[in-house]
Design brief:
The protein has one domain. Helices cover 27% and strands 11% of the residues. It has helices at residues 22-32, 63-73, 78-87, and strands at 9-12, 15-19, 44-47. A three-stranded antiparallel beta sheet has the order 1-2-3, with no helix packed on it. β1 (9-12) and β2 (15-19) form a beta hairpin. α1 packs parallel to α2 (63-73). The mean pLDDT is 87.
């Protein structure tokens, strides 16, 4: 299935910078019950790999999927996630599988934030 929307990303010396899209920003704000203006200064995050495409619905992986997964699994509370998004990660992130926030399918491979924030 072809991706519905290609999200921007850019290679850096630290990893692959996923540039936050307006769709992702709105989705994250909805998941975390915040106004999207809270995320205005966030331009993106640096990941260990390029974005993936969901084989179930064609959605491209994004930071909204990471937030959705952490919220669904109860890994972090919403206030902690807002703090990380606004102020940067508190520690290195372990690699983990990630499910699509739209259809629940699992993206291929493992994902993690690199230690570099990259705003």
């Amino acid at each position: 299935m072809a991706p519905r929307e290609l999200h921007d990303e850019q290679s850096t010396e630290y990893g692959v910078r996923w540039i936050l899209t307006e769709t992702e920003r709105e989705s994250i704000a909805s998941i975390l019950d915040i106004d999207k203006s809270v995320l205005e200064g966030m331009e993106g995050n640096v990941m260990n790999r390029s974005r993936a495409t969901c084989s179930g619905c064609g959605k491209r992986s994004g930071l909204d999927d990471m937030v959705h997964n952490a919220n669904q699994l109860g890994v972090h509370d919403k206030q902690f996630m807002v703090d990380v998004l606004v102020n940067g990660p508190k520690a290195l992130s372990p690699a983990h599988a990630m499910d699509c926030s739209e259809c629940g399918g699992t993206f291929d491979g493992l994902f993690h934030w690199e230690g570099y924030w990259g705003n």
